[in-house]
C-alpha cells in the first residue's frame, strides 16, 4: 500500500526511517522518530520512490493518498507477530536444553523431554498445539522444528495463561527473565487495547515499552532468539509510534482489524474441518 519493501528490508518501518540495525536502541526520546529528519511523510514517499538509490526502501509510489498519521498499526497483528517471536524463543530454549541433556543419555532412554513438556504446557492453556521435526524434500529430517500456527484468540489465551507455567518448562537460569518478558508484554498489550488514556499513562507506557525491549535483548548472550536483530518493525512501532497514535487519536482499538481477522478465522476453521480441502463445496 505504501510502496515500501518488505519487513526484512533495511528501512522497513512505515512511519520512520530507522535502520533495522538500530531498532534495538532505546536511548531516544518519544518523538525521536516522529519528527524530521527521520519521520516519513506521504510527500517524501512519493519523491523517494522515483529515486533508484538512497530511497530508504521506497520501491513504488503509494497506492493511496493517505497521510501517514492516518495509517494506524493494527493491535491484533502486533499481538500475532510478537507472540510468534516469543513462542519461537521458547522452542529454541527447550531445544537447546534437550540437545545438552540428550548427549549424556543412554541408548533407549527417552529424549526430547523438555520439548514435550513445553508442548504439554501450551496445551494445558486450552490451545491445540503440536511441535514436529521438519523434513527435507527427500523425506529425511532437516534438524529443525516447526509448530502449529495459532489464531488470534489462541495467542490471546496463551498470553493470559502461559506466563504462569513458564518457570517449569524453560531453562532455570533464565526462566524468571523469560517469564517477566511474557508478563510485561501482556501488560503492554492490555494497555494498547484499552480506551482513552491520559498523557501520563501514555508516557508511562513508552517507558515500560523501552524497558521491555531492554529486558528482551538482555538475554542475547544467554539464549538464542533474543539478539538485537530480533527487534522487529512491529516491536519498534510499539515503542516509538503507538504512543504517538494515542496522543493523536486517543485510542488504536478503534482501528483494529479484528473483525476481518475473525471472518478469516471462521473461514479457515471451516476449510480445515472439511474432508475435501481442495473442493470444499463438494462436501
Automatic annotation (TrEMBL):
PANTHER family associated with the record: PROTEIN CBG23806, RING-TYPE DOMAIN-CONTAINING PROTEIN
Domain of life of the source: Eukaryota
Protein name: Uncharacterized protein
